[in-house]
Amino acid sequence: MTNRNTILSELADLGSVLSNHNPENIYAVPAGYFEGLAGQILNRIKALEAADAKEELAYLSPLLSNVSKEMPYAVPAGFFQNLSNDVLKKISEHEDHQTSEEEIETLSPLLGSLRNKNPYSVPDGYFEKLETEIVRKNTQKEFLVIFGEKKETKVISIARRRWYRLAAAAVFIGVIVIGGLLFIKQRQPNIIIDPQGWVYQNVTKKVSTEKIDEFVKLAEDETANVAEENDATKKAEIKELMKDVSEKEIQDFLNDAVALESNNETSSPMNE
Amino acid sequence: MALTTLSDSELLVEFRNPVTKEKAFTSIIKKYQEKLYWHLRRMVVDHDDANDVLQNVMIRVWNGLENFREDSQLYTWLYRVATNECLTFMEQQKKRAAVSLSDVESGLANKIKADRDFDGNKLEWKLQLGIQQLPEKQRIVFQLRYYDEMPYEEMSRVLETSEGALKASYHHAVKKIEDYIRNH
């Protein structure tokens, strides 16, 4: 009460309306809650520590622990008796569940009908004698081992293995082919290093002799025509250049040229 | 020796043998059919729905038992398969009806009331209605503990939830159902 009075006087000093307000609890508590709380908590602890479900339920809810657990729902007659057959039938109807017989019948009835028809024949008494034969051969081998005969080591011949032979043949052919290709390539002149050789190898050799002769004749004719044209052109040019030069100047030039030539001949080391 | 007298381990051995596979599977069904059926029926209420789910469960068992690693009991594994199948079924029901799960729950309560043998005055029917008030997972917890008396350790493996959470869930469920029964 002392604390309460202190708080109220504090509120009054502050001028708060709360100093006149009587605090009330607005929240409701179920009837008998606090009276039963301790017992409830204790039961809950015991339920947590219970040995089994029955004991646990007895602590948690005596009401429920006394209710019959028999289900009130009805089940159709014979349901459980037929269930396993119904399930197996459903499984067999599922497309993934098929025996090999069913599978082949589905895929090909023809092949399915041939399943058990074996066309191969077996010599008479083969299976009856087989075991005896194997035992005899084994006995023979053991006899050889016991009496010190060299134990035959199993020889796996490479020649017998078909795939070895095929592989060896393939490698050999490959080597021949690659070697041949390389050899041919070497004989071919390189177009960059030896363009004339390349042209001869790849062009000229493929052209016939008659065609080459024809080409050469054409070229000669063409050259002769071009030479004649050039001569004519040159003569016209010289004429144009010399039109302002007199006869006397040309003669003097020629005389000087002859004199110079004769001087060169006399001073040559060959004449010393 | 008749397969029905074999233990779970022995039945698994027989199941893995192609010659005795079907017989072993039949024995497993006969051994656990009622337990699994009622576990499912209490969840889905309707017999036809329970039958559909149960058959789907058994088909899953047929396909998956070969790879069962035996790191838990067989019946724990079966319950897990059944519970998951049941939850999937209820989820599909919800989607098909395009309703919320709470509507599904009230729908289940209506199914209970629609049962031809329903008697609202009888305590066992009130109990069923009370159970349907619970959220889905809490309902499973309650049923596994209350009806099947499954140890929390096993339940933890079935529902992949901690034992502590399961205990708390069960205790709350008991309280809620008791309150429902008292008030209705």
Structure description:
The complex is a heterodimer of chains A (272) and B (184). With 272 residues, chain A is mostly helical. Chain A has helices spanning 2-13, 33-48, 53-60, 62-65, 79-93, 100-107, 109-114, 126-146, 162-187, 195-202, 209-241, 247-266. Among the domains of chain A are: 29-68, no CATH class; 207-263, no CATH class. Chain A is built from twelve helices and no strands. The longest helix of chain A has 33 residues, at 209-241. Chain B has 184 residues and is mainly α. Chain B folds into two domains: 1-98, Rna Polymerase Sigma Factor, Chain: A (Orthogonal Bundle), CATH 1.10.1740; 99-184, Arc Repressor Mutant, subunit A. Chain B is built from nine helices and no strands. Chain B has helices spanning 8-16, 21-44, 47-64, 74-97, 101-114, 123-132, 136-146, 152-159, 163-183. The model of chain B has no long low-confidence stretch (mean pLDDT 86). Chains A and B meet through helix 2, helix 3 and helix 5 of A and helix 2, helix 3, helix 6 and helix 9 of B.
Short description:
The complex is a heterodimer of chains A (272) and B (184). By secondary structure, chain A is mainly alpha-helical.
Number of helices of chain A: 12
Helix percentage range of chain B: over 70%
Low-confidence sequence ranges of chain B: none
Provide the gyration radius of chain B in Å: 18 Å
Distance between the termini of chain A: 159 Å
Shape of chain A: flat
Mean pLDDT across all amino acids of chain B:
86
Report strand % of chain B.
Answer: under 5%
Could you tell me the CATH topology label of the largest domain in chain B: Rna Polymerase Sigma Factor, Chain: A
Describe the sheet with the most strands of chain B: none
